[in-house]
Design a protein that fits this description.
- By secondary structure, the chain is α/β, with parallel strands linked by helices.
- Helices cover 41% and strands 16% of the residues.
- It has helices spanning 28-38, 54-66, 87-95, 115-133, 149-157, 189-216, and strands at 2-7, 9-10, 25-26, 44-50, 71-74, 99-100, 139-141, 162-164, 170-171, 177-178, 181-182.
- The strands form three sheets. Strands 1, 4, 5, 6, 9 and 11 form a six-stranded mixed beta sheet that branches.
- Helix 5 (149-157) links the parallel strand 7 and strand 8 (162-164).
- The chain starts with a strand and ends with a helix.
Length: 217
């Protein structure tokens, strides 16, 4: 089992934030605390949504200093806009060994897409990102963490190899649909410790269930 943490922006925003974004924006100090914990835990994985320019300016050098890698999910339609990654920044992440996935074209609820917009969000966006970073993009982060059976069916049809939600809790390492925990703007050490302790407890329970099944078989 693993716990997957979802990060949005870090540091001072370089653009006006959409409604609610400020609730998921970390200070540099908060982010460094998260990294220091992750550096000592093999069961913690980091992901970054939206493609903010802080991914390169703040996040990337701090990951490199600690020998960490992570997954980044930019909005393809916002590349080069104020406060977001440009194409050079995207390639910089890829060249540094970071995994690139897709967060769609724009922030849209994928449960409400018609066929034309579904093609743009689920196929055109990862194709553009893949062309820019030089390798196929087959992983997706669900905007707003929202999904239903239709969304998941469309993602399978689009060739998704992994999909990240915002359901919280621990996730199985080999799962196709992976639960993530979003980091809030007011996180502190107690909050982080509780989230990570929950991951360990679930991992122990999962191992015990597997052991009992093996004993019965």
């Amino acid at each position: 089992m693993t716990v997957i943490l979802a990060v949005h922006g870090v540091g001072r925003p370089a653009r006006p934030l959409d409604p609610g974004e400020d609730e998921r924006w970390l200070t540099v100090e908060q982010f460094e605390r998260v990294l220091d914990v992750a550096a000592d835990r093999e069961d913690v994985h980091l992901t970054f949504d939206d493609g903010n320019e802080s991914d390169v300016d703040i996040v990337l050098p701090r990951l490199a200093d600690r020998g960490l890698t992570a997954e980044f999910f930019p909005l393809a339609g916002r590349l080069g806009q104020r406060g977001y990654l440009d194409r050079g920044g995207l390639r910089e992440l890829a060249d540094a060994g970071m995994e690139i996935g897709s967060h769609g074209w724009e922030p849209r609820d994928w449960r409400r897409l018609d066929d034309r917009h579904a093609t743009r969000e689920l196929k055109d966006a990862p194709k553009l990102l893949g062309d820019l970073c030089g390798r196929p993009v087959r992983r997706y982060s669900l905007p707003f963490g929202a999904y239903d059976r239709r969304v998941l069916a469309r993602l399978r049809q689009a060739g998704a190899t992994r999909v990240y939600s915002s359901d919280g809790g621990a996730a199985r390492r080999d799962g196709w649909l992976q639960a993530r925990t979003e980091l809030p703007h007011d996180l502190d050490g107690d909050w982080l410790d509780e989230v990570l302790a929950g991951s360990r407890r679930r991992a122990v329970r999962w191992a015990n269930r597997l052991w009992r099944r093996t004993r019965r078989s």
